[in-house]
Amino acid sequence: MYLELQQRLSARLSAVLLSLYQIELNGFAIEQPPDLNFGEYALPVAFELARKLRKAPKVIAQEIVAALGLPEGFAGFEVAGAGYINARLDRSLQVHAIAAGETTRSASAGLNAIVEHTSINPNKAAHIGHLRNAILGDTFVNLLRATGHSVKVQNYIDNTGVQVADVVVGFLQLEGKTVAEVEAEITRRDGLAAASTDKKEAFDYRCWDLYARVSQWY
After folding, report:
1. Quick check: 59 pLDDT over 90?
2. The pLDDT value given to residue 103
3. pTM (2 decimals)?
4. C-alpha distances in Å from residue 37, one per residue of 80, 186, 195
5. Neighbours of 87 (CB within 10 A)
6. Rounded to whole angstroms, how far apart are CA atoms 14 and 26?
7. Could you give the CA distance from residue 107 to residue 109 in angstroms, rounded to a whole number?
8. Which end of the chain is more exposed for a tag (fewer CB within 10 A), N or C?
9. Cα separation of 120 and 131, whole Å?
10. Distance of alpha carbon 44 from alpha carbon 14, whole angstroms
11. DSSP conformation class of 77
């Protein structure tokens, strides 16, 4: 939706420039203001035209704003600074469209993409950070699909690598345990976890703590 409105603004601005100045631009910048209080889009096009039209950018911006009208989805335009044009969206209209489940697809969409996210290391316990990654990943996937992209999602189970080596180093070097002692601890802690309501008795939490200690030790 955001991209569609940007394209709508671009098309309207092109028509205004052709009508006012008989100028066709191959492209022009549509920026995002540093603060939403200034609107959702910022157009520096008046600065690009100042030399060609031999007018002050602010005067050009005022002329363009007067001619833009209100394209569908926009609440207004205003001149800012020395000649920027700030565009404000009709937020209530967008909220109603989203609430109604309306979706749009970008004409430029159609890429094939793979998004990998979450990917929990299985040698230690999951935590709130993994949940955050899952939420961010799914949100990114939904955004891509909403703009018409074909997206596949992968959750890579990373069962070997540095994180496993760190835990091994922790048992062997920090705690001086043998393989037999580690195996016995796995059996003991899994038994405690099965009999307890505190799942932190499980061996994956033990590895989690050890992994953190090894990282500090390095």
Report:
1. yes
2. 56
3. 0.50
4. 12, 57, 56
5. 25
6. 9
7. 6
8. C
9. 10
10. 14
11. E
